[in-house]
Amino acid sequence: MNRLPRVLIVVALFAVTGVAWWATRPLVSSFGIPQGGQLVASIRAEPRTFNRFAARDHVTDLVSMLTHGRLVRVNRQTQALEPWLAERWEVSAADGLTYTLHLRPGLLWSDGTPFTSADVAFSFAAAYDTTVASVIAGSMKVGSAPLGVTTPDADTVVLTFPEPFGPGLRLLDNMPILPKHKLQSALDAGTFDKAWPAAPPPADIVGTGPFVMQEYVPGQRLVFVRNPHYWRHDDEGRPLPYLDRLVLEIVTEQNAELLRLQSGQIDMPMSELRAEDYAPIKRAADAGEVTLRDLGVATDANAFWFLLNPGTRAKDPRWPFLQRAEFRRALSYAVDRKAFGESVYLGAAEPLFGPITPANTRWYWPGLPKHDYDPARARALLAGLGLEDRNGNGVVEDERGIEARFTMITQKGRTSLERGATAIRDNAAKVGIAFDVVALDVNALVERLVRGDYDAMHFTFSTTNPDPAVNKDFWLSSGSAHVWNIGQKMPATDWERRIDTLMIEQAATLDDGRRHDLFNVVQKIVADEAPILYFSVPRVFVATSRRVVHVDAAPSAPQLLWTADTIAVAPPR
């Protein structure tokens, strides 16, 4: 495989981004890490919004990481809690409920406005405002109650937890701090959820992150430039980020993404490599043409679930058997997880039976009950529900003649999801459950998810923190990421009510061993009731151009750009 001559790459970048050629060349510092220059990454979809409080899709989250800061950050490599906009804090010794956070002095927004505790108080107010209906609201509450927020002075924030909370300040990693001076009027007007839509121009978007959005061309690219007021410096005292510019090219199809990497048009694909791409990229890496990184088993895995909203499903003739755990367990037994890993990931994967993968070393439970491949047991479970193939067409039906036939939607252009959906369909067909697979672009898929307009879905979403108590929006029935039945006012089932009780107790427990015991019970309930199914977790391989250096890659998305401020451009060879 031949690389394009550097002059052609520079010309191509100029044509794509309108950047002068000299802006792409880094200056090599005396300390060895280059400063300046430009890198081009890819994203797989348009952003739904530039307001992270209003959406949780991958691109919106990435834009938030690039442009906004948190009070504290969870390091995606080490899982350690790190000071960020808050440089230090103390916790009350008496009850452990009050945290006093001290903001870094002299912080500025990207437009030069001083950053103060008022911005923090404003962000909490927006997160908790019921008219906003923020997607982060659930994860920012403790025991269903908001945190108390006071600001004794411009540099101090006091957070009062309503009850003991095991993860402590880790929940703050979920909330970017937004500028009061830009968004207060929208909150007052009840239009905060519409603020910062994904539409040019992005001039009003200011933040405390390493980059500022300079340009958004729908369907083509987002361009970011370094934030001149960014607060971080490296160990030698040099200002971060190292890059002058970061371009996110919108490449919706994974084959095109790989070709652009191989031709030198992009430096960093957003997604991990597909299994079939490993061999050619490994050869290219061995030839010194790209850099290949093995990040281990993924933190998150693709998931399958049926829509289990009784309000939506009440008149569905399939609801009498779909609502039964035996039906969902039958599907779990019907899928050969080892073969699934072979066909979807070409063997670079491990069988998975629940939401927590082995990459989450603290919370993964090897003793989780497993539905090993057993099609005979799957058929027996279906028969126990009165589901049999009475007319000989290969699909089971109940005594009324209602077939177990569904439409499964998945993300178009994401090979592991499309191939996984096919594998689920083919395995299910062997026990008489029929699926038609429809691939949609990611934004259409998310809209269907939010509306509850689908039968079944095969999709992926990322956890923001390895601690389950910080991902309550997934575990609690009221959560905005409780995907099989989002945002329930009251638990729809007894087992979901039981999970709610356990997760609330688990979060409020300070004893680590007790927290593990409680969460293991939650995992067992999910395994028994099977509202969401996992079949395989892949190893994560990422590839970059040789120009990309000083990368702290992590197995969870975004694997490379989660720490974009320290990525650099290699000097010309």
Describe this structure in words.
This protein has 573 residues and is α+β, with helices and mostly antiparallel strands. It contains 16 helices and 24 strands. The chain has helices at 6-17, 58-67, 117-128, 180-189, 254-263, 278-286, 310-313, 319-322, 325-334, 337-345, 375-384, 415-429, 442-451, 472-475, 494-508, 512-529, and strands spanning 27-28, 34-35, 38-43, 72-74, 81-83, 86-91, 98-103, 141-142, 145-146, 148-153, 156-160, 211-217, 221-226, 245-250, 290-297, 303-306, 349-351, 405-411, 434-440, 456-459, 532-533, 536-545, 548-549, 568-569. The strands form eight sheets. Strands 19-18-20-16-21 form a five-stranded mixed beta sheet. The longest helix is centred in the last third of the chain and has 18 residues, at 512-529. The radius of gyration is 24 Å and the shape is globular. 48% of the residues are buried.
